[in-house]
Amino acid sequence: xxxxxxxxxxxxxxxxxxxxxxxxxxxxxxxxxxxxxxxxxxxxxxxxxxxxxxxxxxxxxxxxxxxxxxxxxxxxxxxxxxxxxxxxxxxxxxxxxxxxxxxxxxxxxxxxxxxxxxxxxxxxxxxxxxxxxxxxxxxxxxxxxxxxxxxxxxxxxxxxxxxxxxxxxxxxxxxxxxxxxxxxxxxxxxxxxxxxxxxxxxxxxxxxxxxxxxxxxxxxxxxxxxxxxxxxxxxxxxxxxxxxxxxxxxxxxxxxxxxxxxxxxxxxxxxxxxxxxxxxxxxxxxxxxxxxxxxxxxxxx
Amino acid sequence: xxxxxxxxxxxxxxxxxxxxxxxxxxxxxxxxxxxxxxxxxxxxxxxxxxxxxxxxxxxxxxxxxxxxxxxxxxxxxxxxxxxxxxxxxxxxxxxxxxxxxxxxxxxxxxxxxxxxxxxxxxxxxxxxxxxxxxxxxxxxxxxxxxxxxxxxxxxxxxxxxxxxxxxxxxxxxxxxxxxxxxxxxxxxxxxxxxxxxxxxxxxxxxxxxxxxxxxxxxxxxxxxx
Lengths: 301, 225
Fold this sequence. Notes:
The complex is a heterodimer of chains A (301) and B (225). Chain A has 301 residues and is of the alpha/beta class. Chain A has two domains: 2-237, 3-Layer(aba) Sandwich (Rossmann fold), CATH 3.40.50; 242-300, no CATH class. In chain A, 34% of the residues lie in helices and 26% in strands. Chain A is built from eleven helices and 13 strands. In chain A, strands 6-7-8-3-9-10 form a six-stranded mixed beta sheet, sandwiched between helices. In chain A, strands 2-1-4-5 form a four-stranded antiparallel beta sheet, covered by helices on one side. The relative contact order of chain A is 0.13. Chain B has helices at 2-6, 8-42, 44-57, 62-73, 80-104, 108-117, 121-151, 164-172, 176-204, 206-224. In chain B, helix 2 packs antiparallel against helix 3 (44-57). The radius of gyration of chain B is 21 Å and the shape is globular.
């Protein structure tokens, strides 16, 4: 569990990046910090591994004030994945994955054997192990970045817009991969993005931030969609523009048992299962991901 | 040609001296420019002053430096250390700016992520920043290498110029062949040094060629789009 207590960060140039921020990030769940650029979300993330130290307030990990910990040691037990992978361009893929174990003094053979397993874990072919990062595609590099983040089997994985620089198809792929990994591994993931669809897809807890890292709303994706706290949130998630309010368009007959859904502006946004013209109600408790996925894809197309 | 065979011992001896006296300042200059370049890269405020001061060093006439260094160092005028120190000063003057550029060229993303995964400042310098500055450092080192090999011949005026002796001697005896032989051997040494540096770069930085070809591919893709 990661806790922010009254955390404030004022940079040397006077920018108040984070203003009196409190948050509890539960263990073994994915928490997504989402907001526009400059809202302080990356600063918050970097406070967790002491890349940035708060001006006031403190951050706890499992009840321990991290200001008391040695930054280098702390960072080595926290996984970190960033945009553009941040891989070391002069080291082969396998050495990149094994970076932190090698720093920790794990024998090379052992570190390499584990790195190969991690390539399997993130869905990369072992034949890529001896290539250099520049010889890989953007999506592959990002997978290597994730493998490196997992190399010390950390409890916490910090992800700073990790899929921001890849094309939408690869991004969708990587998102599904992360969901699968998280089901298997159950890490405490803190994920930063400016993409609200990505936040809703990945987050167990979604925290929507305004400038100064003020929390506009936090909750599960369903809670936020059902009850946007204010106009800012409504606009940010798109319901203010009617993008998320879908209605059945009876004038269009689709094939089979689907009905076409249109958004507030009348644009086709997806379909819904409707056997014999009656909209199917999923069992309560299961996430209505099939609908939101379909709207996502319609939005991309 | 006959002159060369008759004086082969002399030419080989001078060549070896030339190699030794020019290799030393190249190595010393390279080692010295690394901390100096890093400081210029790291401290923006003093960077301009520092780089200008070191740049000015190169404007000191070489002969003046050769004859004043003995009084500064307390050495005899014919001591080869004078020439080595003078050429090392020129090497630093040329290379400090390049070294600063080399450290500037290391992507900020990479150093940040190295910090984020838990490199200490020292291990990050030696295993990330220094090797990634390598290609630009090498480019500068090649310039310094050629310059030093040719500049050394001026040292013949104070008795330590390697093959430069052939220039002075050939001029005094009005014997162009000797001068030509000196030029050819100096050129060969410069080329061999350069090839050694290129070879070392390939061995020590096998990744730099894959990066360069990836860059070219990206530019081609960008150009055709």
